[in-house]
Amino acid sequence: xxxxxxxxxxxxxxxxxxxxxxxxxxxxxxxxxxxxxxxxxxxxxxxxxxxxxxxxxxxxxxxxxxxxxxxxxxxxxxxxxxxxxxxxxxxxxxxxxxxxxxxxxxxxxxxxxxxxxxxxxxxxxxxxxxxxxxxxxxxxxxxxxxxxxxxxxxxxxxxxxxxxxxxxxxxxxxxxxxxxxxxxxxxxxxxxxxxxxxxxxxxxxxxxxxxxxxxxxxxxxxxxxxxxxxxxxxxxxxxxxxxxxxxxxxxxxxxxxxxxxxxxxxxxxxxxxxxxxxxxxxxxxxxxxxxxxxxxxxxxxxxxxxxxxxxxxxxxxxxxxxxxxxxxxxxxxxxxxxxxxxxxxxxxxxxxxxxxxxxxx
Length: 361
Ligand code: IPM
Ligand code: MG
Description:
magnesium ion binding, branched-chain amino acid biosynthesis, Isopropylmalate Dehydrogenase, oxidoreductase, 3-isopropylmalate dehydrogenase activity, Isopropylmalate_DH, 14 strands
């Protein structure tokens, strides 16, 4: 019996998780996979109920699980809280406490969406890259951190610290090389070596680690240049390895290559249970309207089956079904192409994926 902790969170979280669960239940039935789902609260809803974004009970639930399916956290009603008490802190604490240092964000264009992206077809056709984002270091967690009096006595000073140790860089680099070895054997390490000390160490350690993986071609790129090359020539990338903040920014940018951030799934892995979540946020402005695209979460569920439960056929069945539904012209608002497609809501998208999974088997 595989135990899945389910954390819907805030905003559109419950709606997208509902659809991913529909899909998981269907593949579980078809492939004879015994899955057990246990729900927990996290983020803003947890602040409202328990006064903290990651209640101890949710932490325990996650630690005891084989994998975690996560929706989204945050919303305007909690925006005025200090950063260390905001809903996002619940997600960050989970990443840190579970040691989820490797964040995989595949950016692969589904062929039917080639005209959905604002970029030209000839640039994005065939895009298939993976952003590997370091997830437990860098500016997100470095100390010192906080707001205090300014040293000159005038007003305040906000401080974040960008730090990486050799070990932290080495372990994420190894994952990057291993993933690249199973793909097109090309790893681009992204840094800001011309300015940042942490990047100088990053580049040195990645270069050193490359010696263990002679079959993978390594190149280095500055992050500002990378943000341009992603738009200019995205097909040149296979695996993009980068630190926490750069990865956060570059993955949102890369989402536009495949039409919408509503399509981008992710897996966060470390030594314990993996966490699977869409890369988009809680989108409070469209919550509860049955308009959000559930595919990023459904595709995250496929990654959960692949990486945590090691069930490739079930993962592939979901991905094929998504492709077929898009091929048939069904679209949520974010990936709509006027004139050519059928606009549907969140729940119907989930139903159609389920239907195509059944048909495909
Ligand atoms: C992401 C999100 C999170 C991050 C937020 C919600 C804290 O933007 O997963 O990309 O910054 O890591
Ligand atoms: Mg982000």
